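Technical annex B. To support the medicinal chemistry partners, we prepared a structural model of the target in complex with adenosine-5'-diphosphate, based solely on the information shown next.
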Amino acid sequence: MIEISHLQKNFGDNEVLKNISLTIPSQQVVAVIGPSGSGKSTFLRCINGLEAITGGTVNVNGHVIDPQAQRKELQKEVHAIRQETGMVFQQFNLYPHKTVVENVMEALLIVKKMKKDEAYKIASDLLSKVGLAEKKESYPSQLSGGQQQRVAIARALAMEPKLMLFDEPTSALDPELVGEVLKVMKDLAEEGMTMVIVTHEMKFAKEVADRIIFMADGVIVEDANPVEFFEHPQTERAQKFLQQVS
Ligand code: ADP
Ligand code: MG
C-alpha cells in the first residue's frame, strides 16, 4: 500500500526527514511514536502530498510522488493519492456553520458530485457507524470534542479511502473523551483499514497496532512489533522515551 524510498524533507537548512525507507502492506496498522519535533507530522504530511518532498519517492497504492518528475505529472499523482487517503488531525476543522451531516456530505457533493439524497444516506450511515446517529442535525459547537473528532473521522471515511492517516487524533481531547475516539479507530483497524497513526496513547498502540515505528531526529530508530518494542526496546533512545511517557 505504501512504499517509501529514501525520503528526505528539508525546511530550509533544517533536515527534518533523513533518508527514510519503509514499506507498509495493505491492512497493516502502524503506530508512529517519538519525541516532539522528531518529524512525525511531517512524515504523515509527506505521505499524502501535503508537504512537497525534497528527495526520494513516496508510492501510495501505485501513485508515485517523485520530486524529479514534471510538475504536471507530480500534481496528478498527488491528487490521486489525496483521493484515496483520509486524514484526521488533532484539530477537527469542521465547518462551524454546517450541521454534522452536512459536514460529512460536503466531499460527496463537491468532489464526488453525488446527488443530495444519496450523499445524505451515505453520511447518515457513517454517522451511525461512529455512534452519532442522533447528532446528525446538530452543529459542531453543540458537540463534545470526542464527538467532533468522530464526525471528522466519518467525514474522512466518506471518500472511501484506501488508507487513513491520523495525526495525534486524541491529543486535544479531555481524558474522558479519548476512549470513544480510540474505539472508533479500533473498529476501523479490525475491519482491515490500512492505518498510520501518530499517537501518544501507548496502551492503544500496544493493543491495536501491528507495528511500531519509533522516530527520533528525522530517522526511524526502531521498527518492531508492539510486544518487541514495548518489552524489549533495542536502543537507549527508545528506552529513555518509554520511561518518560510511562
Ligand atoms: P513532530 O510531529 O514529531 O512533533 P514535526 O514534523 O511537526 O514533528 O516537526 C519536525 C521539525 O520540522 C521541527 O523542527 C519543526 O520545527 C519543523 N517544521 C515542521 N513544519 C514546518 C514548516 N512548515 N516550516 C518549517 N519548519 C517546519
Ligand atoms: Mg506532530
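Notes passed to the chemistry partners:
The mean pLDDT is 96.
The longest strand covers residues 14-24.
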